[in-house]
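Case study.
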Amino acid sequence: MKNKTFKALEHFIDLILKYRVIVLVVIAGITAVMAYLAGHIAVKTVFSDLLPKNHPYVEVNNRFKQTFGGSNMVSIMLEVEKGDVFDMTVLRKVQQITQSLQKVEGVDTYQIISLASKKVKEVRASTEGIESRPLMWPNLPTDDAEIAVLRESVLNNPLVYGPYVSIDMKATLITADFTDSEVDYFKAYRQIKEIVDNARGDGVLVRVVGEPILYGLVNFYLTETIQIFAVTVSALVLLLLLITRTWHGTLLPLTTGAVSAIWALGAAKLMGFHLDPLVIVVAFLITAQAVSNSVQLVSRFEDEVANGAPSTKAAARVSLLNLFKPGMLAVVADAGCVLVVALTPIPMLEKISYIGTAWILSIMISALVLTPVLLSYCRLEKRYAHPIDILPALRWILNLCSAVVTSRARYGVVIGAVAVFAISALYAFNLKVGDANPGSPILWPDSAYNQDATAINNKFQGSDRMFVVVGGRNEGDLKEPAVLESMERFQKYMEAQPEVGGSLSLADVLPAVKRVLREGNARYQEIGNTANENGELAYMFVSGTDPGDMDRFADPQAQNGSVTLFFRDHQGETIRTAIARVKDYVAQNPMEKADFMLAGGLIGVLAAVNEVILSGQIEAIAFALLVLVVCCTVTYRSMVAGVFFMIPVMLSNTLTFSYMAWKGIGMNINTLPVVALGIGLGVDYTFYIVDGIREELHHHRDVGRAIAKSIASAGKGVLITALTLITSVVLWSFSSLRLQADMGVLIAIWLSISAASALFLMPALVYLFQPEFIVGSKRHPIELAPDAEPVPVPTA
Amino acid sequence: MAADSTLSLGGALRAASGVVASSLPLLIIGCLLYAAFFIKWEPEISQLQAPAIERRDVFYGVAAPGASVVWAVGSYGKIVRSDDGGEHWTIQSTPAAVHLQAISAWDADRAVVVGNAGDVLVTSDGGRNWRSVDVPRSEIANKLLQVRTLPNGIAWAVGEVGAVLRTQDYGAHWRRVLEEKDQAWNDIFLLGADGWMVGEFGAMLRTRDGGESWSPKSGPLKSSLMSVRFRDPENGVAVGLSGAVLVTHDGGDNWLEQPRVTREHLNSVLWDGKRWIAVGDKGVRLIGSEDGTRWQGGRISDKDLSWRTQIIAVGERYYLAGSNLAQLEGDQLHIYGRD
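After joint prediction, the assembly is written out as follows.
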């Protein structure tokens, strides 16, 4: 049975080597087609892709975002250095920006709010009755007297003074909302940047924040990202060339990586997916897998040649024959681990998971077929590309590994690993879900964007919003005094949280109108006593203005209204506390005629994301382990193999989480793709080492010697890959995007753990426990190969 | 035989360890799946204790029955008290949910509070217990706007629809003193047997017999008067909407309108022993000379634009009720509940 598989494999390898020209042509053809497709893949961020499917918060957000303000809000702050904002220069700039924003693509023209917009009104009583008119629309004030009137109106208006003009009157805000389906972040970013740049100067500071700006910036840095990617690849080439000293040792792994990448991106295009610039680092992660598999083959090939293989073709054949099983196992297990990520109900993760799976599966062809075929074209005699030889250094390290593993030091390695695992597993509980710090974790803390965000959040109530919908059971229920009062009490309750800078709802609008009706008497700044009175107050507020101006507070049927909460930051802890407090309030204050519905706006959808990602991640880890166990159990026909290979995976996960907790990298929508795809990594190298040991034991029964041999051969490949990849990935630290730098480090950690467990820990464990599936047992001895050396018999 | 048994023991051990090793992965995976599906990652709700005075709290009335005891009342039935001159505040639970408009105290234990919907609350134990009491009500509207305590358990409350109510037993029973009418009374002030009331449409009333009988006085204004104070039976000041200031030197028979120094509403006026002080909307404060003829406007603090409904003096210190609760000493304005 086993021999049958083996025969089939031999046959297959002979076949591809025999028809190697055809194989090359076919692969080249497919690569050309895929390259064409890959060239047309869209690189963009689609925010809705980040939101969990079927989550109630997201459904509320999608239902009401058009009117109550979605998650794509841009805030522009104009701050004066001297004096206050009631100054012609500033007001003119406000008007210019407000008008220019209308032309920005994808902007919801009804949701541009500033001092100069038609929506911002004052209600005043005059001899003719109640009048509701825009503050500064269509015309700017013309003289000092009119400016004074404007200042008075602003100070009198709680909907403006505070939310749109800062309490110290030194800053004013302009907000614009984008239609989710139409927003193109990069275009929005460029157009708004132009508007904002034009407005700078004359003693006015202009700051701008918002998701469109943030993701626009990410797109803006795309060129830089690609440059870093190119530099990383160049570094990879140089390092490979330095270490292997041969052109084929350099170019073959690179070709493998490139072919895989092209196939994967082409497949992504075929599946109708786009590429998110933030996850380009992920590409490197998978390329690392491709490169590592290819390096193993090349390294083995060279060993075979050195051992006197008759031809390169024969050497390629033997290499593939021996490495096919661990290589295949690595690819299939990795692909399975990446595929389970699709179970997390976030569309972007699903897409990345499919792309990643396709990518990893393509390694089967690019590494396990293409590399041996190309190797067969190499020459037998070795020609070095340069005189520097660092192989002795590598050998020294590998000898050290063998020495450590087969000496008493192995106990130290194992105990050390157990300790590291225990400590990191405990420390991993400090990992924060959601953003761990104020400001965007995508960018460096000292980036202009994050500084702008801090400045705006200091001057105003907070630039991140969440709306909670108060849904009446019937039309008009929103006018009920009990409902409005509950809304106001809810706002007060929520504002007790320090991160909530303020809140706004119909319950703030109507009292202001009532006060105006009552001669401006402060004692009447309160909600009307009856539903009818509240209806009249609402009518006063909108009378003589555009229909729809009330929309951001309530729908025209007065059935659904919003309470908008302003947050000073969107840290995971802030959001979780807020959501828990909303639920707490709702549980303690049931309303007869209406219900609170969670939750829209940026904070609302982030809450939804944060709620699913932790359980999603744990679920993905569980299924990834399951995939791994199944793969290993089937391959080695032993459950023990399953638990054995779980060790490096679990270790790499706890260490990664600990590192994230230590560095304050939260598990959020941006880090998740990399973290999730990394779950199953950390075990490939081990497959090669362990399989090498097992294979070696076909020739003799000395486990120690087998380990040393395997480390010397497969270990060399591991070391080459790890060294080159880790060094290149460090280059990501120079990225302008903090996220990419962070993720680069994470990848480096994975690769280090993989290498360390493959070279030290796993061989030590093999030597210590001598698991049956590797070293065999009395009942299932490892069959010795026919050309095996005689078992060393103790001589008498 | 012996060899056999050791062998089988070893075999059993090996089998057992094999079972453990084989089931371990399933166990780990099972635990992780359980955690993923069934453990709800609820945040440790750091039970945020709301401070006694919150940002959104509005205070309409403040009273200080002693050097260090301060009471303030406001929105949604809120009553707070400080026993150390405003250093620390505690919330007192009340049976009322409406906005409370005014408080006045007989002493540190006994006080009365009036509010919207004709709600009247009394306490006789320093506010540990607030009791709701019945008062005569109108069919139309019942918001009570101001209350004044006088010695011997007397108190007057005034409000919408001409409400003028009096108690003589520390608030237990209330009687309507004047007929209902379509005009609200905003303030009442008594000094011995002399008393004055001001209200909507510039209306004024005057009593010389401790409130048994009231006679109307015609004032120079048609706009609402919000507050009235006398420093002696002859000299008084009334303030009102749009910065109106009226001064009398003959016990309220004749009122002289002063040149307006502000257009903001003035809601409360006070004689602190040396000067007149009036406060109102957008942080304005007027300071008037002893004879009430020279008034000086401006804001208490340039950065503060809060509206105020009442100012009281305790020694050198003032307490202010309004869109926030504040303390003023010299030029130092301290707003409670803010950083």
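Observations recorded in class. The longest helix of chain A spans residues 601-636. Residues 733 and 742 of chain A are 7 Å apart (CA to CA). We will return to this complex in the next lecture.
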